[in-house]
Amino acid sequence: MKPVAGDLGQPLLILLLPETLERYALREPVERLLEAPGAVAIDPPRMPLSLGVARILARRQVKRLKLPGRPRALGVFDPRQLPLAGALVERHPDADVWALRGALPGADFVFALGSADDLGPAWERMERLGIETGRLGSERVR
Predict the structure, then answer these.
(1) I need a labelling partner for 31 at 20 to 30 A (CA). Which of 12, 16, 57, 116 fits?
(2) Could you tell me if 48 and 72 are in contact, meaning their C-beta atoms sit under 8 angstroms apart?
(3) pLDDT for 39-52, tens place per residue?
(4) Residue 1 CB: number of other CB atoms within 10 A?
(5) How is residue 33 annotated by DSSP?
(6) In this structure, what are the phi and psi dihedrals at residue 70, rounded to the nearest 5 degrees?
(7) Spatial contact of 49 and 78, defined as CB atoms under 8 Å apart
(8) Which domains does the chain have, with CATH numbers?
(9) How many CB atoms sit inside 10 A of residue 84's CB?
(10) DSSP string, 98-142
(11) What is residue 13's predicted lDDT score, i.e. its pLDDT?
(12) What is the torsional sign of CA 32, 35, 41, 43?
């Protein structure tokens, strides 16, 4: 199927990682989410940044991002990822912001990924947003 004008591709869950996946304490549940065809991860900056610098760089980073679809949900694990989440929401205002580890003011969905044995609520939320999970009957005819 060819994309129509204005179609930005498949809906995506973008996981904004606070550290590389290999080193992250929540690696296993994150990898389970990344099994979904509509889920991708973005690694953090290589150097710690001040909040002001992070905001400036986040806007630039979002302009250069080559995503395989359009963001519909942004999984945030750490408040240090908020500048990037904010820049993505500016560009994709219909994207949900998910708090995946602890409280996050203004989050559209809160899910404690580290203490969840069942990812069902996350899969269901992804499905409602049109993000393909490979579960719950989401396999799309292409």
Answers:
(1) 57
(2) no
(3) 999 998 877 778 88
(4) 7
(5) H
(6) -115, 135
(7) no
(8) 10-128 (3.40.50.2300)
(9) 24
(10) EE-SS--TT-SEE--GGG-S--HHHHHHHHHTT---SSTT-PPP-
(11) 98
(12) positive
